[in-house]
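Below is how a single chain appears once it has passed through the pipeline. First comes the sequence as given, then the structure the pipeline wrote out for it. We keep one example in the README because the format questions we get most often are answered faster by looking than by reading.
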Amino acid sequence: MFDFKESSEAGGIISYGVNNLDLYRQATRFVDRLFKGATPAKFELVINLKTARTLGLTIPPSLLQRADHVIE
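Resulting structure:
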């Protein structure tokens, strides 16, 4: 699964995410608001350890320490 339409166009099965062109069009409004003192939104890093274990993946401890939320 990918987050950009272009990934599906390049051969990926599924993509689900924002329309990049619309995002770029809105960027100037966001920058203007930031210059006027608005607080930027915070991104969250969420790691699902249950899914990682099911897939046989090991998440490095350094990445787990940076996570905002870990799903056991």
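The beta strands are 46-48, 69-71.

See the next section for the split statistics.
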